[in-house]
What we know:
The N and C termini lie far apart (45 Å). By secondary structure, this protein is α/β, with parallel strands linked by helices. It is globular and about 65 Å long. Helix 14 packs across helix 15. It contains 15 helices and 15 strands. Helices cover 39% and strands 16% of the residues. It has two domains: 36-66 and 346-459, Aspartate Aminotransferase, domain 1 (Alpha-Beta Complex); 73-344, Aspartate Aminotransferase, domain 2 (3-Layer(aba) Sandwich). Pyridoxal-5'-phosphate is lined by residues 120-122, 125, 154-156, 228, 232, 261, 263-264, 289. Pyridoxal-5'-phosphate binds next to helix 5.
Amino acid sequence: MHSDTQPDYEHLQRAAKDHLWMHFTRHSSYENADVPIIVRGEGAYIYDAQGKRYLDGLGGLFVSQLGHGRTELAEAAAAQAKELAFHPLWSYAHPNAILLAERIAGYAPGSLNRVFFSSGGGESVETAWKLAKNYFKLTGRPMKHKVISRAIAYHGTTQGALSITGLPPLKQQFEPLVPSTFRVPNTNIYRAPLFGDDPEAFGRWAADQIAVAIENEGPDTVAAVFLEPVQNAGGCFPPPPGYFQRVREICDEYDVLMVSDEVICAFGRLGHMFGAERYGYEPDMITCAKGITSGYAPLGAMIASDELMEPFLEDGAMFAHGYTFGGHPVSTAVAMKNLDIFEEEKILEHVRSNEDAFRATLERLRDLPIVGDVRGDGYFYGIELVKDKATRETFTDEECERILFGFVSKQLFAEGLYCRADDRGDPVIQLSPPLICDQQHFDEMEQVLRVVLDKAWSLL
Ligand SMILES: Cc1ncc(COP(=O)(O)O)c(C=O)c1O
């Protein structure tokens, strides 16, 4: 197939099945079914190879903040590729990396002024853990190396990031992983009935479990705690009030670095540049990626406090870490343009002024017997499905297979809504649409979900 001819659908199907190894994909499901092939996007919509339109309810993969088909972003990439396609940040710099680092430091809270670029989220998480270890070695606390993270949290697939991930089924095939990581409870209040009426007490309890884990492991050995502002896996767990403030106190008390993993939550997803700003805390590091370019080029970043960089400014010192494509000239040019558009179009304000409407529209689904919980913040929601609303009884494994994957996931797509059905915790549907969406898109999501979830209930 040449670029000047129309793509041949049969050829694409055959070649996809014969050669393309898709990520996190059961290839057997395509033995007797077509691989969905997405060819184009415009605004909040994507189109498949047969011309069918879908509402991009997941922003690709929590990525497409500004939506699709933005020629300004494509042009920024093309202009940079013509000017300077590549040069690494290994002892050299280029203008976009410099200016983007300055800009991100301006947006980031407090003294988070040092920006280390990567090519994506997992690399940013790796970078944060390596920096934590290295920092403590250089500052006379060489035993501090362990990481605490939360149950069911996803932090990436590289061996370090996977070790920090709290999803045993994703890890089992790759054990032994990097040792020295430990899990604490997440902030799923729907599954913490003892605290059901008192989110503050729940937040206090959940944060205090971090102190317990640090004590159990020995404070001299713990380097960092990794937390998302709103935990994605499990279906959007926002923090209870006071949670992050208590975590900050604990980290200060035990000299443990607080890492805000904002690979999803940064760049407007929660109506602010960073989730930390929304919930009023100042971490020691932020990891980010995805929405930084709205997906028009790959890029990630680890943002560290001035204090963490200090030992690396000593004569001859170096953070011996890097990625060939980290801070790529084209990606950083795209990120600059992306952030220009955020400002010109007041994207953060748009999310903040529409998020209540988004929430209210999804909340309508609570009248369905299968909808147990609707939770999230900003443009980031999870809808938890249950068999019994009163007891909150969840699906069996067989029901997850048959209903969630066998029906809900496929049928939502067939009805024109691209989003995600997930059972990494309890069964949920995840929504993270482009930040340009408004009431018309919220209504469309609600309508498709209503039809499909209604039918799913009858299959239970
Ligand atoms: C919170 C979090 N951290 C890390 C990652 C890994 O990012 P990537 O897939 O870009 O490596 C993800 C991916 O979704 C994520 O959600």
